[in-house]
Design a protein that fits this description.
8-stranded antiparallel sheet; 22 strands; alpha+beta; 429 residues
Length: 429
């Protein structure tokens, strides 16, 4: 059993492309600036300039545990009964799956004051955590680090540049909307995040199950964008989609010539239940099998006497077929692909007179089958229902609105499960 029912992933390159799009729209209004600062009785002007788009680096930083340990030992007193090392272990396990880096490799810091002016190349790394709150996920800057290789320059970096990087991130990151995972008629738990070396993955389980927790799968599809459905999720989607069909009724009345007279009849048929199954390992299809129930009442008057017969209507074999998932842009829907031949039968209730029964049954069955079989077939052939819309990530910050949208999507199979895979397109501006 998989530790999730729905998983949606976006790769490092797509996230970096989104970051580059934001940079191009906002530079130099953002990503540059200056501040005045006093040090040792002298006044300095410190300027910064991020000269190229920052990139996203996924996976836990190699020095992450060291940074965490230093921060906790400095700022946090462990609760009674816990040691600092236990806290470090707990926080490190959480951050390992929820933290990524935004790296500004091409950046300069200019320091002017005390009769000197220097331009220093710097590298700044911002650590960002994905928080899950209810159905939504948000991005929260944790810390910025960097180095210049010079202790004097590092003072300006640590006291001006790095706090400013966190401040700017705090203003920009809330403008990135990580949408909830939704499926028509199917409830999901709040999502959990898993940052892997290649993708950021949001995982959810069906409602009523625990929120996914580690250990998560180590491997995911290689595509820039993917959505993976467990078998249980597919079955839940299929059952929700056919739910509106259950209870659907059909009615017909008329007369048939039975040789010894004309019989009046009234018939009803009803889709009593639909069972949904898996069509194949990883296939974007469901199977269905429907139970048909009904009743036929017929009567013929001979002389002054009316003879009545009741029949139970049923299908053997029952209606069966396949429902396939379809893609249209980012819209995922399901549609009946095939309905197999089924046979309607009637069985008399009670103990009718034998000659009347033999005269009635065949013409009644012919009349009922001629009406109901096409109606039931068309009902299943016309079954179409929405499944989901593949989520886009919207970026709305500092007057810039961008969307990271799945594109070129197609069905695939991953680890025996149905997946939807494709690339990501950046739109807006």
């Amino acid at each position: 059993m998989t530790p999730f029912d729905v998983a949606v992933g976006l790769d490092e390159a797509a996230m970096s492309q989104a970051m580059a799009a934001v940079y191009r729209e906002l530079y130099p209004r953002v990503f540059t600036g200056s501040q005045r600062v006093e040090k040792a009785g002298l006044e300095f002007v410190v300027s910064w300039d991020v000269k190229a788009p920052p990139t996203v680096v996924l996976g836990p930083p190699p020095e992450g545990r060291h940074l965490l340990a230093r921060h906790l030992r400095t700022h946090l007193e462990p609760p009674s009964g816990l040691t600092v090392e236990q806290l470090i272990d707990a926080y490190a396990a959480t951050l390992e799956h929820t933290t990524f880096q935004v790296v500004a490799n091409e950046m300069t810091m200019s320091i002017e004051g005390g009769g000197e002016h220097a331009v220093v190349p710097v590298k700044v790394v911002l650590y960002v955590q994905i928080d899950s709150f209810g159905a939504h996920m948000t991005l929260r800057p944790l810390k910025a680090t960097g180095t210049t290789g010079n202790p004097t320059d590092d003072w300006f970096l640590n006291n001006i540049i790095l706090p400013e990087a966190v401040k700017v991130a705090q203003e920009m990151l809330p403008g990135i909307d990580l949408p909830p995972l939704t499926f028509a008629g199917v409830g999901l738990t709040p999502p959990a995040a898993d940052v892997t070396p290649r993708h950021v993955v949001a995982l959810a389980a069906l409602s009523g199950r625990p929120v996914p927790t580690p250990p998560y799968p180590e491997n995911w599809p290689q595509s820039p964008f993917f959505a993976v459905l467990s078998d249980d999720a597919k079955l839940a989607i299929g059952r929700a989609g056919v739910r509106s069909m259950v209870g659907k009724s059909f009615g017909e009345s008329g007369s048939v010539d039975i040789g010894i007279g004309t019989a009046q009849y009234a018939a009803t048929a009803r889709i009593a239940a639909i069972d949904v199954g898996l069509a194949g390992r990883g296939a974007p299809q469901f199977t269905f099998s429907a139970a048909i129930t009904g009743n036929v009442r017929a009567g013929i008057t001979i002389g002054c006497t009316t003879f009545g017969v009741n029949y139970t209507l049923y299908a053997a074999p029952p209606p069966t077929g396949t429902i396939g998932l379809e893609l249209s842009g980012t819209q995922v829907s399901a549609r009946t692909q095939h309905v197999n031949t089924f046979v309607l039968l009637i069985s008399p209730d009670g103990s009718p007179i034998e000659w009347l029964l033999s005269a009635l049954t065949v013409p009644l069955l012919q009349a009922v089958t001629a009406v109901f079989s096409p109606l039931i077939t068309m009902a299943f052939e016309g079954l179409v229902f929405p499944v989901t819309v593949l989520p886009s990530v919207f970026i709305d910050t500092s007057g810039v609105r961008l969307a990271v949208t799945p594109t070129d999507v197609h069905f695939a199979t991953f680890a025996g499960l149905t997946s939807i895979e494709g690339t990501a397109r950046i739109t807006g501006g």
